[in-house]
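New to this. Help decode both lines:
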Amino acid sequence: MNFEQFAKERFQGNLYTFIKEALDFYQMKSHIDQEEEPHLYLDSIAEENMLTRLVVATGEYADIELAFEGRVTRNY
């Protein structure tokens, strides 16, 4: 399944649920920490690129950084 198909089938308007499903489906090591506001911890450049393509495919966001309002930490 390509990213556009995944987004079309799975995105229901809730970004964080969608990203959690994508992390599980594509078996990524990145994760979301739910403190006061969700924060995305990226494990690799490849995963960042995949997640960016997924959020862009929803038609709601320009990139992963904007989708998480800057709450992105890169651990690579």
About this structure: Residues 16 and 59 are 15 Å apart (CA to CA). The chain has a mean pLDDT of 94. The radius of gyration is 11 Å. The chain has one domain: 12-74.
